[in-house]
Amino acid sequence: MKIPSVSQLGGQNQSLMDRMGTVHDLRYLVFDNDTRLLFASTFDGDWDQYLNDFGALIPDPIDIVFGEAEGWPGIRNPTAKDWTAKHQVSSTFFYSAYPNESVKDIWKAMKVKGGLDVLLDAETS
Q1: In this structure, what DSSP letter does residue 5 have?
Q2: CB neighbours of residue 60 within 10 Å
Q3: Structural domain boundaries of the chain?
Q4: Which of 29, 25, 3 has the alpha carbon at shortest distance from 14?
Q5: SS3 label, residue 36
Q6: Which spans in the chain are helix H?
Q7: Residue 38: closest CA among 91, 74, 81, 82
Q8: Does the global pTM surpass 0.90?
Q9: CB-side exposure of 11: number of CA atoms within 13 Å?
Q10: What separation in angstroms does the CA of 63 have from each of 22, 66, 112, 115?
Q11: What b/e readout covers 66-94, taking b as 16+ CB neighbours within 10 angstroms?
Q12: pLDDT tens digit string along 56-77?
């Protein structure tokens, strides 16, 4: 299994994930002598919509990541959800510092903070 490089994903991972607007974090790695893939993410909303968003908004990068996984049908294929469900493993433990806040809520809070920082900086100079 070949690990996709940043250049294969367009070199714009941040903007690709921002396009979805629901992913808090995401990582993938190949291990066990290049025979197994771990794809882990935290997202807002339900699982079906999450996979729909991958298919609608960033299908090519997802197909690059999973392209060499045995039996991967492609994210646009109607069986992609079945394949994913068959291969997923539930987490034993999960922690979130912001369990009730969406990605968009956090972006909004950061924007407000940025505006306040500008005002406060102007007052102190």
Answers
A1: P
A2: 14
A3: 1-94, 97-125
A4: 25
A5: strand
A6: 13-20, 47-57, 59-66, 80-87, 103-124
A7: 91
A8: no
A9: 1
A10: 19, 5, 36, 39
A11: beeeeebeebeeeebbebbeeeeeeeeee
A12: 998 988 998 899 899 999 999 9
